[in-house]
Amino acid sequence: xxxxxxxxxxxxxxxxxxxxxxxxxxxxxxxxxxxxxxxxxxxxxxxxxxxxxxxxxxxxxxxxxxxxxxxxxxxxxxxxxxxxxxxxxxxxxxxxxxxxxxxxxxxxxxxxxxxxxxxxxxxxxxxxxxxxxxxxxxxxxxxxxxxxxxxxxxxxxxxxxxxxxxxxxxxxxxxxxxxxxxxxxxxxxxxxxxxxxxxxxxxxxxxxxxxxxxxxxxxxxxxxxxxxxxxxxxxxxxxxxxxxxxxxxxxxxxxxxxxxxxxx
Length: 264
Ligand SMILES: Cc1cc2nc3c(=O)[nH]c(=O)nc-3n(C[C@H](O)[C@H](O)[C@H](O)COP(=O)(O)O)c2cc1C
Hints:
CATH class: Alpha Beta
Bound molecules: flavin mononucleotide
Largest sheet: 4 strands, antiparallel
CATH superfamily: NADH Oxidase
Structural class: alpha+beta
Order of helices and strands: HHEHHEHEHHEHEHHEEHEE
Strand content: 15-25%
Radius of gyration: 20 Å
Helix content: 40-55%
Number of domains: 1
């Protein structure tokens, strides 16, 4: 697969994976390409933990599902991220960013524009959307053959210092190598991030993975083989749009957007 084809084809997987295990060979390739990433002074501050144990994956799934139900039910998730939620193709075309919720159960559709209001939240809770999404999320994570924990060496990752920016930047570069390579290997990948949204939930995963004090758990991903026909979850979104070049690139200085390079 050509690099730019992998970049164009790279996606986040919202749907279920096949139960088939990810081969040791593929796992080795994923962490090797991650390790080839650039880092400040070649410090390589990243650390990874590969998890295939069913009991650990199911426990992470439980924590993730519960966290989603909590964050959706108390409105913190909507409040935090509402500016990125889109409910029409027109809105997506106009903004060319965010998440388009293009798959919603019929009872919920009439309320899409109220979902960020107190009344909307009451309707969402009355329709048990937080529980539906939480259980959907638990099943997605529990059905994953592999979890990947990403950590940073606290000797390098010192929040408030320049080294923290460098470490997170390097971790991002390592993850992009890995994410792109999942595309080449026919694998899918998605953040398991709801435990980050709820007080105490992330610490439960830190303990479950026995993360030592000199490492900081930064992210958890679910990874697996993609089914031929991707079955979309009950509530689903798409986010393949990107801004036009003129919306994020300048020429010579930041007063002059780069013109003439926008895709037709
Ligand atoms: C820092 C970061 C956090 C993210 N958190 C989540 C997440 O919690 N759940 C999820 O499904 N995707 C998450 N994503 C994936 C983005 O939603 C996704 O990259 C974006 O919508 C573009 O879609 P694409 O990856 O399919 O191109 C995250 C991506 C990044 C870089």
